[in-house]
Design brief:
This protein has 398 residues and is α+β, with helices and mostly antiparallel strands. The chain contains 18 helices and 10 strands. It comes from Zophobas morio.
Length: 398
Amino acid sequence: MRDNQISDLIQLAVKNENFIDYKLDIHGKSGPGDGYMGKITFVTVTGKTKTQETKTLNLAIKSSTENQIFRNQVPIKLLFEQEIYIYDKVIPTFKKFQQEMGFRSPVLESLPTCYTTQRGENEVLVLENLKNRGFDLWDRTVPMDMGHIKTLLKAYAEWHAFSLALRWKNPENCQELVKNYVNMWSYHIHQVEIEPVFFQYHEEVRKFWEKDEKDIASLKFSKDTINYILHKLIAEDPEYHVISHCDGWTNNFMFRLEQKSQKPVEASIIDWQLSGLSSPVLDLSYFIYTCVDTQEHADVKELLKIYYASLSSSLYQLKCDPSEVLSFNTLVQQWKKFSCYGLLFGTFILRFSLCESGDAPDFVEGIPKGKNLLKILISTFRIEKCIISALEIICYIM
């Protein structure tokens, strides 16, 4: 993104911030492996307000690629519009709903402020830079510790509670909110035709694990099964659907630590381009099988209990009975049905999560050099250590 484009965006972003004069400091961009669908530019705005106070805004400008070859292969426009819809419509709806219910949810407070968005051929979101609020990423090459796992499960529970409660209390508003919602992961996979990549990655994982026939039986998915999981499973059981994140790998969460103890006290869920409508278990299984060492935390039911305790609390505060909206027994049954989604995505996403930054693919740069996205994915990360590390994380299912 060029400096003059940034300047124009900032002018829109700060129009309601009472600046009479300000200056910009462009001081960084996202690196390889930090995001695969767009670039982030970090900007600090400093100036004087109408009351002569000094004011500073720390911003993260998330922009789509203008490369037409890449845009022709990947539904960039729809991906960015999905995230724009989350910030422009979904979050304000949830905030209004919580105000009506007399509730203030930490998960909504932890989300970055969105100052402005832009649609068109160069989609953009101008967001608050959460690092200046003390949030930071977890190292994506290392499984999360229990403190971070609990904090994130609670954040997901609070987020999911809004969809469940809104449908229960005001089904017409809920239907209006999601009437044109697209499950972007399924759509993206279909458009790019990367089902063969999922099957190939899955088969490579199985080959490394053939020594343990009992465990490998749990990973035996046919091509038809993989297509069913990717395209049809997500739409089932609509009575329990939530607006799901659907992209729960490590780089899409930020955590704020308590200064003295250095323990996580708050989690922010970021990057909503692939969000959809699904069972909450799609988010839970995706997160557990890509971020949690299930050798160390083998009892998945205990993780579900942590999630459900927070979900129940949020539903109560939104004036709903958790046992009627989504009981714990129903959640367990949902896990048994839908957790294969996270297991399948784990064999795919961990290739990206566990690689070193220098080994991360640059899809935008690769495609103009004559490479097809499918070929880039198939040829990327045939790295034994990544597969073995993935297997060490995805070794138990409930």
